[in-house]
Design brief:
Elements lengths: L1 H10 L9 H28 L3 H16 L5 H8 L3 H13 L3 E5 L7 E5 L1 H23 L3 H18 L5
Helix pairs in contact: 2-6, 4-5
């Protein structure tokens, strides 16, 4: 009963049905893609033993590291939309498990920089490669015309979901 119930809920469309069978197939394919990416994200989070908020914070810290930027607790709070207290708790927890470290700011000795550990960088690469590698593999097999159609569709759907006009 539970599997049938969940399957039917995932198939429910909170809008009018597409006008064509091809349109219905596109909607079904997009739903399968969404389910697969959600499952892949859950696997990565489980592999890393992290919450979605932890992962977002760590991704910001990793990008700052790649860009040669210095993020402190206040920067992280702004990026995440968290209070200072919430970021302090998050940082303390991630430091305790060896995912991040605090270092002195290179130009402001009163400030600290939060940096991802080398091990975290390796762990994140390993955990998310099962998502990004298949994406690149499939994209590499697209013809130029197929790629252009996918790009147009993705941009059009992105604008629609954001409430932007075409």
């Amino acid at each position: 009963m539970t599997d049938t119930f969940l399957s039917r809920e995932r198939q429910h469309l909170y809008a009018d049905s597409p006008e064509t069978s091809a349109g219905a197939q596109v909607v079904a394919a997009i739903r399968l893609l969404r389910e697969a990416t959600d499952a892949a994200e859950k696997r990565a989070l489980a592999q890393l033993d992290l919450t979605a908020s932890d992962t977002l914070a760590l991704r910001y810290l990793m990008q700052a590291e790649r860009d040669g930027r210095h993020l402190g607790p206040n920067d992280l709070a702004r990026l995440l939309g968290f209070s200072s207290a919430a970021v302090t708790k998050l940082v303390d927890r991630l430091m305790k498990v060896g995912r991040i470290e605090k270092t002195a700011h290179p130009f402001d000795r009163r400030a600290v920089v939060i940096r991802p550990t080398v091990q975290l960088m390796h762990d994140m690469d390993a955990a998310y490669s099962h998502v990004d590698s298949p994406l690149v593999d499939v994209v590499n097999r697209l013809s130029a015309d197929e790629a252009e159609a996918v790009i147009r569709f993705a941009h059009s759907l992105t604008r629609a979901l954001r409430g932007e006009r075409e």
